[in-house]
Specification:
By secondary structure, the chain is of the alpha/beta class. It is built from 14 helices and nine strands. The strands form two sheets. Strands 3-2-1-4-5-6 form a six-stranded parallel β-sheet, with helices on both faces. A three-stranded mixed β-sheet has the order 7-8-9. The radius of gyration is 21 Å and the shape is globular.
Length: 318
């Protein structure tokens, strides 16, 4: 297997230029990497070109000559089809067959752990190198280059991709071998989904009890209720001016994405037999939120759903 040299490693095919991938690719270009992007959505390609990213007409064209193939795709099926070739398009080669031997396949999508391990095995069996590195930090973090990367990889492959990940993020954590990055991501986002629901329920309860948002924030943010969902992504406007609540819940991290990540956590809970109760309930709550108009709103907008479904008068009163 060939090693990826330092100069070659600066040539990247970036597949998936959406709300997260687009800004990530821009930061790589700003840092001097040679990036060729591709996306199935014409508007994403247009936006990428407007930010100085060279684009290709096909994924195969983008991958040709690249030392690193970075994918940011919606699901594990999309990733596996891209690697192997879409079964609905016979005769079309997959990326693993198109890429030069020893190419680094760096997947930053959020997918099932089993799918991440399968994708890595396919890449290695085809003579390539593989890393799963899902991200946390949302669109704001992607634009600012402050994402957290959770990485599953062999030690030498982790060191090979670390410099480019540090361009796009401020924290890069080697979580273990293939699939470990995805495992860390879904565990983290299960905590996040559950904690955002708890924080939102507490604010609605505070409203019912006559507390101002600021008073509750001032207490909880400096007490045992402190958490990221409260102090960074506060679900009510005012206490944290940069939170999406101050922009009518424009994401941020969309409700549909939280519903997706919690479904991945639910799949992992079921496959491992973990006796979880809050994770599955959070998945159910965010599924409903996304289906009832919250898909494109920030996930902190769950507070509006809780508020709308709450009794108009305190319990126990007529």
């Amino acid at each position: 297997m060939s090693e990826t040299g330092a100069a070659d490693a600066r040539t990247i095919a970036f597949l998936g230029l959406g709300h997260m991938g687009g800004p990530m690719a821009v930061n790589l270009v700003k840092a001097g990497y040679t990036v060729t992007g591709y996306d199935v959505v014409p508007a994403a390609l247009e936006a990428a070109r407007a930010h100085g990213i060279a684009t290709a007409d096909t994924a195969a064209e983008a991958v040709t000559g690249a030392a690193v193939v970075l994918t940011m795709l919606p699901s594990g099926k999309h990733l596996l089809d891209a690697y192997r070739g879409d079964p609905n398009q016979p005769g079309q080669q997959g990326l693993l067959a198109t890429a030069a031997p020893g190419t680094m396949f760096l997947d930053c999508s959020t997918i099932n752990v089993d799918e991440a391990r399968e994708a890595a095995a396919l890449a290695v069996d085809a003579g390539h190198r593989a890393v799963d590195a899902p991200v946390s930090g949302g669109v704001v973090g992607a634009e600012a280059g402050t994402l957290t990367f959770m990485v599953g990889a062999l030690a030498e492959d982790f060191e090979a991709v670390r410099p480019m990940l540090e361009v796009m993020g401020k924290r890069v954590v080697h979580c273990g071998e293939h699939g470990a990055g995805q495992a860390a991501k879904i565990c983290n986002n299960m905590i996040l989904g559950v904690s955002m629901i708890a924080v939102s329920e507490a604010f609605v309860l505070g409203e019912k009890l006559g507390l101002t948002h600021q008073a509750l924030f001032d207490v909880a943010s400096a007490a045992s209720g402190q958490c990221w969902a409260l102090t960074t992504n506060c679900p009510v406007p005012g206490p944290v001016p940069t939170s999406p609540a101050n922009r009518d819940y424009q994401p941020g991290f969309a409700g549909a994405l939280m519903a997706k990540d919690l479904k991945l956590a639910l799949n992992a809970l079921e496959s491992t037999g973990v006796a979880a109760r809050l994770g599955p309930l959070a998945s159910e709550i965010y599924d409903s939120f996304a289906a009832e108009g919250g898909a494109g709103r920030d996930f902190s907008g769950i507070i509006t759903d809780i508020r709308d479904k709450s009794d108009h008068q305190p319990r126990g009163q007529a």
